[in-house]
Design goal:
heterodimer; A: mainly beta; seven-stranded mixed β-sheet; 1 helix; globular; B: mainly beta; four-stranded antiparallel β-sheet
Amino acid sequence: EPEVTQTPSHQVTQMGQEVILRCVPISNHLYFYWYRQILGQKVEFLVSFYNNEISEKSEIFDDQFSVERPDGSNFTLKIRSTKLEDSAMYFCASSTDPDAARYQETQYFGPGTRLLVL
Amino acid sequence: AQTVTQSQPEMSVQEAETVTLSCTYDTSESDYYLFWYKQPPSRQMILVIRQEAYKQQNATENRFSVNFQKAAKSFSLKISDSQLGDAAMYFCAGGSEKLVFGKGTKLTVNP
């Protein structure tokens, strides 16, 4: 069964460093998402991406964050200058084109990248 | 959904028994989906079940079923014949594009 994959599974970085989190969505999916979950808290939406542009972003997704689909398979989240409070689990998710199905399709989540900022 | 509320931080159930996890939501959207995700200690998010808001029939997936009350904006998850492997955090989520999650319910299954 196809699945969303994410690399790395764990990343430790120093405050102020740039990190790139990578995701390979399910191959026929067209909508891509990033969420984060600070330890012990709920999952929060960061950004959605469709047709090579950001579809929606949350207040959390400030200028320090960016997303990119550099090729036909990868979807990346970059944090330019990490802060202590960026420590969290980052989930990538993908779904098929909701317009094609008229309604929101199921979002399938990757296993997550655990980011620790020291 | 703009808000999703799970009022039970923790629940426990005996193996083979039935447990119901509660979820309420608030939304101004007319078209939306509702989901239950399971998060084991590995922290991976695993889809358990989904419900299309335009459907009146409650979704079922093997031992998992939902009680969807659209007027009351309620979406509870029933787990029948609970198994030790069901122990996890359970998150209710909803939306028409981005998903809004509840705070989760930690389910313990006692042997």
